[in-house]
Amino acid sequence: MDIIALRPPVGVTNFISLESDVSLANGIYRMRLQHPMLLSVMRHIAANYNNQLYAANGPGAMTAVAQQLGCDRTPVGLDDLLNATNNRTSQPIQPDHAEECDWIALKLPVFLPVLWSRTKYLFQSPKKNETFPPVETLYPESLGVHYNNFQTRALEVQPGSLMQVLASGYCPVIFGKHPLLR
Hints:
Elements: E1 3-5, E2 15-18, E3 24-30, H1 36-48, H2 59-69, H3 78-86, E4 105-106, H4 135-138, E5 144-146, H5 149-152, H6 162-170, H7 172-177
Parallel strand pairs: 2-4
Antiparallel strand pairs: 1-5, 2-3
Helix pairs in contact: 1-2
């Protein structure tokens, strides 16, 4: 997944985002190095690999393992993230799985505020005599914007586009060096 971070998740140690109401996203989570949940997911993928079904080996694996272990998958919004992280009250989980369930599910808008089919608009210049409002006001519940590289990899970053604004403000080194962003 391709992410442009809008602001760091201050005080947050572990989180995972919810890709839909029934499936956990596999690309947006934060766990400590060698977290046991990742080993469980890798074992699940090795035992149940499926290259024919979209998302079976990513979100599907995360979801299946979380369900198997009894992890709390109730999503929280940005406003509740610090509270949920600092005051976590876990549901009863299977013995010996407390460490594997040490993460928090996030609501979809936290990292996926733009529907995949609309990400192309992030790359387009504003219409004549129009400016975009500050990006923080467009996506107030977001830590980042997922821009779906598969959909956008061939798109040109147009002058004044939201992508150019994001890149110049949050990725200044890359913005200064990459010829397509200037």
